[in-house]
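[job 0417] fold request received: S-adenosyl methyltransferase
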Amino acid sequence: MTEIDTSVPHSARIWNYWLGGKDNYPVDEAAGDAYTAVFPGIVTIARSSRAFLGRSIRYLVEEAGVRQFLDVGTGLPTVDNTHEVAQRHAPDAKIVYVDNDPLVLAHARALLTSTPEGETAYEDLTLYEPEKILEAASRTLDLTRPTALILSGLLGHVADYDLARDLVRRLLAGLPSGSYLCVNDGSRGTDPDYEQAQDAYNETGAVPYFLRPVEKIEGFFEGLELVDPGVVSVPLWRPDGDATPAPIGQHGGVGRKP
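[job 0417] inference complete; emitting structure tokens
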């Protein structure tokens, strides 16, 4: 297995730190603290992204009737992972996680717990291998049945927008009618402070993550039927309770394949 380098900060571990997780090192905490010193709102973005994931999965299970999930770019296990939310509402749900990060792989056993009725699996592949992902997923999921493709905070790592669109299309091509796409990613046009902090971070030599205008995030859903309210700032997507949350620079949505 690839050795884990604990001498340089790592985006998945920094995100884990912001979410309140324990799978990180002092170098990640230092990088995370340096980022929050410039832009404290990043913790809200991380946690709002996670909360959106939970609400969207709950919608997919309870209202759309989905029982199969393909979560690509899983990241480190924290709270309310995809299988935990899905199986809480549908114990027979099946989930395939995909990531190729050695650190995530080391913690994959935490993602492989399952209800007796359901199933979870982990595949060591990258987003850049969509056909291999589908082939591997088919060992656990029945890809003739509706499946939800989860891409949470992942597509911003693909610098070339056309390539990112193509990867999404190729993954969706292997899923049947009635399947869903769930995306949320960092966005431009809502929070200039976030944009400035992220642009500065990208210049440090760390693995870059590119914020995109909202219309480009909407572009990932081309050809799909968007679930109301469409692509919106993640706190505004079917929020719990009566309060209207403030928008942040993270947009997401859910779309159905006709």
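[job 0417] notes: Residues 9-255 form a domain with the Rossmann fold fold (CATH 3.40.50.150). The chain has one domain: 9-255.
[job 0417] exit 0
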